[in-house]
Amino acid sequence: MIIHSLAEVTGTEREVRGPLWTSRRLLLAGDGVGFSLNDTVVHAGAELEMQYLNHVEAVYVVEGRGELVDETGQTHPLEPGVLYLADAHQRHTLHAHTEFRALCVFDPPLTGREVHDERGAFPPPGQAPAR
């Protein structure tokens, strides 16, 4: 059985910060469960363009408000209780209207130190993460 707490990972190498977000990596590839789980906070006013070319990502909103613009240009409101899944590696843009917190599941699992590259993607599994 694996037990991790948010308090336990905060301030450790499992807490990864980007310029517009903070990701607390609760489950990682090294935990051996086949997916990773992040508790991610996006700063109010942030706009993040992403396209996970090497991963499938599910995002479940737990706090805050924002919107997702998909690759067709359609806008989807985001608020607590909403889930979105980028299951076909779709390009998307997240606009955080307030501080925004979500639980994010990745398959294949993240190793822990990944940050978005210039395309908004994480590196393929087995490739050294950008630092």
Automatic annotation (TrEMBL):
Reaction equations catalysed: (2S)-4-acetamido-2-aminobutanoate = L-ectoine + H2O
InterPro entries named among the record's database cross-references = Ectoine_synth, RmlC-like_jellyroll, RmlC_Cupin_sf
Q: Note the NCBIfam families from the entry.
A: PRK13290.1
Q: Output this protein's name.
A: L-ectoine synthase
Signal sequence span is: none
| HAMAP family assigned | Ectoine_synth
Q: In which pathway does it act?
A: Amine and polyamine biosynthesis; ectoine biosynthesis; L-ectoine from L-aspartate 4-semialdehyde: step 3/3
Q: Which family does it belong to?
A: Belongs to the ectoine synthase family.
Q: Which SUPFAM superfamilies match?
A: RmlC-like cupins
Q: Which keywords does this chain's UniProt record carry? A: Lyase
Pfam families tied to this protein? Ectoine_synth
Per the UniProt record, the lineage of the source organism begins with: Bacteria, Bacillati, Actinomycetota, Actinomycetes, Pseudonocardiales
EC top class, in one word?
A: lyase
Q: What is its EC number?
A: 4.2.1.108
Top-level taxon in the UniProt lineage: Bacteria
Q: Which CDD domains match?
A: cupin_EctC
Q: Which organism is it from?
A: Amycolatopsis nalaikhensis
- Reported function: Catalyzes the circularization of gamma-N-acetyl-alpha,gamma-diaminobutyric acid (ADABA) to ectoine (1,4,5,6-tetrahydro-2-methyl-4-pyrimidine carboxylic acid), which is an excellent osmoprotectant.
